[in-house]
Design a protein that fits this description.
Elements (H helix, E strand, L loop, with lengths): L1 H24 L5 E5 L6 H13 L7 E5 L6 H8 L7 E5 L1 H19 L12 H4 E9 L2 E5 L8 H10 L5 E5 L4 H13 L4 E5 L2 H9 L6 E4 H9 L4 E5 L28 E7 L4 H16 L1 H9 L9 E2 H19 L1
Parallel strand pairs: 1-2, 1-3, 6-7
Antiparallel strand pairs: 3-10, 4-10, 4-11, 5-8, 5-9
Helix pairs in contact: 4-12, 7-12
Length: 333
Amino acid sequence: MKIKWTLLSLVCLFALLLTYAMTTKYPNRPVVFVIPFSAGNAGDIFTRQYAGIVSKYFGQSIQCINMSGKHTSEAVTYVYEQQPDGYTVILVTPSLLISELQILRQIEQTKARGSIPLITDAIIFRNEFEPLLRVQADIQLFGVSPNGRFKSIDEILSYAKEHPGEITIGGISPVGLDEYLARGFAKAAGIELTYIPYASSEQALEALLDGSLDVYQDKMIRFLPLSQSGRVKPVVVLHDEQVNVQGLKDCPASAKIGIPFTHGSWRGFAVKKGTPQEIRDKLILALKEAYKDPGYTALSEKYLTNIRTGYLEADTWRSEWDQEYETLTEVFK
């Protein structure tokens, strides 16, 4: 018995010493920010620019890598397989919650059929990761072609109620963020829209302009130039208030026309569960300092991500994960 207790004590002591050494020396090498999207994506651009600012307050450089395979699962799996030592951080957006929803639904549906689930080693994002800080929130807009059959959101709503499912709205990828926003808006408005996925925003825009798509949607930074150039006419912004920006001043806010759906994208960072609190604190401090940096303020003004407050600290943001997951479940049901 004494030998067992001695060995247990030695193991515990070794673990404490290892944790102490890991936290006191951290960071002593570059940290990797994993981006679960392809290069040039809005999340990719944000992460690389923000990482450059974070490194000023971190004492180490930050490397950014893209892993866009399998609807964010490639990136989630990679980070999960790394040690929880704070050297691998993942960019988090609603897309990771949507991927979790897809995995759990597939498992549930397989079990309901009496079959053995094919996914036995799935990584459930909310179970295996801990939030650090949410930094940014985007606003989504819907628009039509100036030469299309609809000129306003009122016309769209009126026609959709009389002709369920006939109006088409485009976006990127099936069962992704764009589909969630399109279906969530339609559900809140009490209408049915037919969602058409495209490989890129450019393809969706082409479809709108050639008349094969009724409604185009995109984030503020990509939508605004299209509105200002006259290529796309904005009909509704998914927000609480009208946006006081040139090209959007006459565009109604969803909440103001009685449709309480104001969701959009957001971005922040998380680490694998089990990362020591001391390390998480150092990461959070650097992320917070970067958020207050004049360089980031200028970027948020440039990309119009300062209209909606994106900042959320870890505990509050973790609760938001759960709330948004419930909304996702309802919308995709």
